Amino acid sequence: MELLFIGLIGGAIISFFVFKKYTSIYNKNRTQQQSVVLLDKIKKVSKLITVEGEFAEIYHHENTKEKFLGLFSSKKKAIILINAKVHIGFDFRKIKMHTNTKNKTLVLSNFPTPEVFSIEPNLRFYDIQNGLLNRFNSEDLTQVNNDAKQHILEKIPESNLMQTANNEAIEAISLMQNLVETIGWKLDTSTLELPEGNQKHIE
User: Half-sphere exposure (CA, 13 Å, Cβ side) for 65?
Assistant: First the structure.
């Protein structure tokens, strides 16, 4: 009878440690799987547009071609009204982060600077003047469209769009935090450095 009792106790102890070991392995695998899912979620966000700006610019286009070995030149020109939409935001693929599976924490160590994602110009031509041997064609329209985008791109630093987008970094990080919390993890931004004026908002 005593041997049976000792055997039952021994079996229970062994079962406890086997169960504890199995649970530990299961939780570790589950945590690692959560880590992969979490990083995949953030990568799927990819590019986040935080600011949309509108520009209205007058652009003078002029092109001169020389003919007959430079003895004759022909000029064409136009005044172009550019109405453009600019989208600025953050590329989440450039984020630097790593996971601490032990504490279920995503450590965010670097956040990208805002960048221009797209420029969508709408052009209206005024005062079009074709030269005798230099006239506007479909290739010119493509070139003018490219020039217009470049013109708007050069105007962006003069506006406050980049600063506005930079101020929206906290909102982007809050979005990440929401994604992290959906699976019971925490976002650690203690090592993250943002431009002055944003730092105090990080929690």
Answer: 12
